[in-house]
């Protein structure tokens, strides 16, 4: 079967199962495998079709025909899902069980070529979230077939299989069994890969690196090839590649070879980037700036374009962009061009933010307030919503939020509205705080003792673990803790901290 990925296809398959056979010719012109999958599912050989019966409403044949009709009117899986054309009746249609049975038989009889195997794997990946019950029994066999056929796959097939594995790894961990064989094959095929395939595989490698470290074997070859093909990369693939490089830089430093070329091209492609691509690219620039300073060349163009797109950003994009701006303000001051628009948009989206978004935005506001005072516009809304989310915050997020409140209490006193809820929650997390968090939190409490008296309750809970871990404190942590103890008039603890500092200076 010809590839059912981002290229036009013509599919030809011979099916043989339980003594019957049928030749099915599909002429398909579209950009995604969704259409192929639907046709394979519905157009069953006449010998196994159930006779049509005039049963009102719940006729499974009628339901299947309606399902196929609606799917084939959609040009892609993305469009189909966006228009929400799947109904509950569609997901429970008997046609999916019939397809799963047919597919299982074909896999067991080894009837699929490497190309057909890749197409099927990609199609299942696109539909699995709504059809997981029907596909659960098929997945182990399909994944084993992908593994066995990887050596014969063309570049496009390798790319689509890697995408499917990345998407399915959480819901169907069986896909991880196929990844090592796919990754092993990729270096031999990179020279013949189109830019989209290179980008897709690098993105998939970033997503799969923890669950299947073998995927890292493919990264050096990809990174070496990308600069030669980067001129033909579209804006979304460009953003995905830069994001993947940021995610992979520690586990596979060779990926940094691709960054200068990617960063240079972003300046030419930024006008056509969607909000997600802008946000991901700015986040990647902030994350990559130390390891690959060339990425900073892309920041001015990204920051300049962002104000025109913030109205369409979701909370995740807003949070990542503001965090990135805070990280980049010293190395690329032009990033400040994006801050005012981001800060203005955040209050309308704050109710949809998860704890990480809230913590990151408050930290970023504290960091950006001097260079971009417009960021203070977002603080009241953030502070108002934080109490509703503190129960789901990690110790790190709690600590960052409290430290941000200290730095913001002067220019944005509304931030103090969040402090009582923060310190109350932190009392329950003291036992799992690391040394740095203990130090930061104790210092923050000392700073807040007058503006928010509730903070002093946390101080008494922090002092016991501080005493037991003083020997593990770095010098700067010892000095910060000593300062806080003096502010709080905790003389015994202050004396113990001073004693430890003196001992280390001998």
TrEMBL record:
Gene Ontology CC terms, in alphabetical order: mitochondrial matrix; ribonucleoprotein granule
Domain of life of the organism encoding this protein: Eukaryota
Xref: SUPFAM superfamilies: ARM repeat
GO annotation terms (biological process): mitochondrial RNA processing; regulation of mitochondrial mRNA stability
GO molecular function terms attached to this record: RNA binding
Name by which UniProt lists this protein: Uncharacterized protein
